[in-house]
From TrEMBL:
Residues annotated as domain NAD-dependent epimerase/dehydratase: 2-241
SUPFAM superfamilies: NAD(P)-binding Rossmann-fold domains
Swiss-Prot/TrEMBL keywords: NAD
Record protein name field: Nucleoside-diphosphate-sugar epimerase
Transmembrane segments: none
Length: 325
């Protein structure tokens, strides 16, 4: 039985669904916060509730007493912690929730894993730790200079994980995801926004000139890496990316091709918490977990655009704004 905090989030939902399809029993929790449009989370959750091997509790990782009750009711073999406050920019406006959810929530889970004998934890970390480092990013970089409270909270999560591994032998896989996108993705993230704005013929807002580049990871690849992360490794961090980097301008051109519409671009000032480029060295995760990304950016954008068009009636009412202010 697998415990999945954050099961209504993007990666959480996709990973939970994949495990349910494999016949695994999953217990999921989510607080359904309104950082982005909660209708997307409710939609994901409605899909998961269609599986008989899925159990859900509306709960928060910050609430130790509620978590303890759940651990008392179920015997977990492993935890995949995908509950987190996401978003670099918003962490500058409301830093407190990042420390309470990402850091305290992680501490709660490790403490309960220790008390209830859970031997394996998979932890969602981030490529944002690498700000200022040279490309491609490698896991052995020191990453001691986070540019945002979001990144700092993730660094703290990794430190907590390492301490519980050293003290209590809890096996930990820490996954540093690189810009995950795909169906049922976060509506506040760039690719979803670009598709929605171009499809609805609204202005496309770009911070900077669009030359900044990212190592984009299609959701199926992220899920594959997450599930492979259940393997016993000791305590290790892994990049989840493709060792590729594409500019926002190129992404927009792919979306234009797939939707058959032209973007109306509006440029705004580049955000100081952003980085100019990301690219993952994934040789470590390839060697230790046998993970290789399979979906190219061209194929991934095509799949996502096709999905968006098929679900346009639902997605037209999904807001791209960060809502929890």
């Amino acid at each position: 039985m697998i415990f999945i905090p954050g099961c209504a989030g993007f990666i959480g939902f996709s990973t939970t669904r994949a495990l349910l399809e494999q016949g695994k029993t999953c217990v999921g929790i989510d607080n359904l916060n309104q950082y982005y449009d909660v209708k997307m989370k409710q939609k994901r959750l409605s899909i998961l509730k269609g599986y008989k091997n899925f159990i859900f509790y509306e709960a928060d990782v910050e609430n130790f007493d509620v978590l303890k009750l759940i651990f008392q009711m179920h015997k977990f073999d492993s935890i995949i912690n995908l509950a987190a406050r996401a978003g670099v920019r918003y962490s500058m406006q409301n830093p407190f929730v990042y420390l309470s959810t990402n850091t305290l929530g992680t501490l709660n889970l490790f403490e309960l894993a220790k008390r209830f004998g859970v031997e394996k934890v998979v932890l969602a970390s981030t490529s944002s730790l690498y700000a200022g480092e040279s490309l491609p990013f490698r896991e052995d970089y020191c990453v001691n200079k986070p540019l945002s409270v979001y990144a700092a909270s993730k660094k703290a999560m990794e430190a907590i994980a390492y301490s519980y591994y050293q003290l209590y032998g809890i096996d930990v896989t820490m996954l540093r995801y690189f810009t995950v996108y795909g169906p049922y993705g976060r509506p506040d993230m760039s690719i979803f926004r670009f598709i929605k704005w171009i499809y609805e013929e609204e202005p496309v807002i770009i911070f900077g000139d669009g030359s900044q580049s990212r190592d984009f990871t299609y959701i199926d690849d992220a899920v594959d890496a997450t599930i492979k992360g259940l393997k016993k490794v000791g305590c290790e961090a892994f990049n989840v990316g493709a060792n590729t980097s594409y500019s926002l301008n190129y992404i927009i051109s792919l979306i234009e091709q797939n939707l058959g519409k032209k973007a109306k671009i509006v440029h705004k000032e580049f955000h100081k918490a952003d980085v100019l480029a990301t690219r993952a060295d994934f040789s470590k995760i390839n060697s230790m977990l046998d993970f290789t990304p399979k979906v190219t950016i061209e194929e991934g954008i095509k799949r996502l655009c096709d999905w968006y068009v098929e679900n346009a009636s639902f997605l037209k009412d999904i807001s791209t704004k960060e809502q929890d202010r």
